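Hi W., the FE2/S2 (inorganic) cluster complex you wanted:
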Amino acid sequence: MASNKKNKLRSEDWFGKEGKDGFIYRSWIKNQGYPAHQFKGKPVIGICNTWSEATPCNGHFRELAQFIKNGVYEAGGFPLEFPVMSLGETIIRPTAMLYRNLAAMTVEESIRANPFDAVVLMTGCDKTTPSLVMGAASVDIPSIVLPGGPMLNGKFRGKELGSGTDVWRFDQDFKAGKMSLDDMEEAEACMSRSIGHCNTMGTASTMATMVEALGLTLPGVSSIPAADSRKKMMAHMTGIRAVEMVKEELNISKILTRPAFLNAIKVNSAVGGSTNFVLHLLAIAKRMEVPLTLDDFDIHGSKIPFLLNLMPSGKYLMEDYYYAGGIQVILKELEKHLNTEAITVNGKTLTENSKKARNWNTDVIRPITDPIIQEGGITVVKGNLCTEGAVIKISAASPELLKHKGRAVVFETIEDYHARIDNPDLDIDENSIMVLKNVGPKGYPGMPEVGNMALPKKLIQKGITDMVRISDGRMSGTAYGTVFLHASPESALGSPLALVENGDVIECDVAAKLIHLHVSDEVLAERHKKWKPLELGFDRGYIKLYIDTVNQAHEGADMGFLQ
Ligand code: FES
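Structure:
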């Protein structure tokens, strides 16, 4: 843990030093034009910037950082902006999740190695949030998050377009012959028409909600669109608050307590947040040494009413959510469920902060007395197919498929799936259960978002829109369907998921929290004798380190030596 002795700034170990070392620390900072009185003896606020042109969702962060700096200066601090590894979800290959832990390492070591008394974490695109929070959590100095905000609503031929969510719809329409290539190209620019991250309740919006529910942001900031001037004002106020947090010695460990994590689970259920939330929250908790298990998501989240009518589970987008009152309304509606011991970065509780919230559109944010679904959170299922659990997002699933029995159609790898899914001879119907193997944390390093496998073209053309799918992979927060994800342990370890064969009968019963493979233990044991692990072919560098040390989905898929 970083030293943060009372009455002594951490940065004094650099800028307050006498002799040669102090000379060097001060002299080289002065080369940027800062006189000594501007930084010596003042709280130094690191601004951890994930700006990158290869992370389009965070492309406005250079300008936003300036507003944070203005706030820091106003409060008597000295800002120093620094870059860390930035992960652009739509661009980075093979999947941004492979590098979340590496990015977290760059954050942790950048903070630890520099003279920061506090940090402002600039987060936006999916993995930029957990990686920054994980890194900061491992250092434990005062830390405050500024989420960069969602894009404005997409607009296409008189209709609203949701980031990601409508890509899946368009893909189905294209395969069904309802949309041309020209239509698709026109829609591209209509979907992403402003600065900011995905405008659905995808993973980025989920992560922004998560950090506010954890208490790591100023009240209300997470739902403000990136293009709204109030985001800049909040950036200014965040800078001010970072300086005050140094004076109050409000380290991140005082905020990230178990009650805060349970609050985040409840809020995630109410907003219909992404299943990626589970992995990231577990990883952050382990960094803080806060006890949190997969079962906590079920115990504390699955009974919470689902209130937010946003894509992919509902109809509206983040811009509508903000105009309806934003996250503060959700917090107020959840008042009786929230823990009031957990404090936030402004020293108050979530409940105190949201007292004055008003709901301006009850179709966007439903009152708790009239929810969209009474119990709509992420549910954890277990059984012989995944002894450590798998997750399903109820709000994005088809109710009639939540209890289902069908024969397995197995894809050994994602390449196998792509090669065969649209083959007209594939033996599959709408009652089949699609099983995808080898897409877990180690099996396809990084656990790609392929769990919501697109349905076979021949069934889409028949009008089928959903089927039960099971895998050890992830699903984009913008996607939907009756999809069981994060099956743990993963198939690459030779788990029962690795042993499923075509035609095996699988039964799921979400209400009973069950997923069962109707194959005897004896037969599975026989199959296991013949099972061989895939040759992954990574024998050096970060990916080897990742494969050797990453833990399973139910543990957060962090690397063990970082926890
Ligand atoms: Fe960046 Fe969705 S791609 S938030």
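Residues 57, 89-90, 125-126, 163, 197-198, 202, 204 surround FE2/S2 (inorganic) cluster (CB under 6 Å).

W.
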